[in-house]
């Protein structure tokens, strides 16, 4: 009787075999993901920007948010099944190793294509709205200026040297940097939008919110506006039309 009782107690203390299998699978998966974190290969001339998979994530969402192609993510992380990513998994998002767009003396480089960041339109729109709100500017104005200038693209440089999303000129970026505590690199997406929105804010203050003058000055410069008035009427008209679209 005592022997049977001890056997029953031992039986109750043991995990059923299906639970053992689940536990083993979980530990194996975690060790596999841990290995993957260190096994990623971003490719020649690139580095990893690490992203931790969140609840509800899928690769299409990560591609849209990061601007990195599905093929590049799959190749860098050795993903055999692109429909299978797990919560907590760390993914390498390959990024081109970039040079700085600002020199030690504060000068901003001209036509520094290797310093440009890539971006997605979702990233750009979110940042434009964020900094419009931070500076108390109408979001439709900031969105319209940015679209008119670059089509919301950071990886472009205009023939005249304008950089990225809001097409800051190197000398304009240098002048703006001299008025703030932290230097911002216009070749980097967020710095570019932050500087461009700050510039728009200063023009908004200078011209007391006169929309035509603010828009004109962003394009032709405040010195030209003050001395010659508005002469870029087509630009102003185009921006105001875009503002109606983003209301």
From TrEMBL:
Cited Pfam families: LysM, SLT
SUPFAM superfamilies: LysM domain, Lysozyme-like
Organism: Ktedonobacter racemifer DSM 44963
Name of the protein in question: Lytic transglycosylase catalytic
Superkingdom, taxonomy of origin: Bacteria
Every LysM domain range: 49-93
Listed InterPro entries: LysM (IPR018392), LysM_dom_sf (IPR036779), Lysozyme-like_dom_sf (IPR023346), Transglycosylase_SLT_dom_1 (IPR008258)
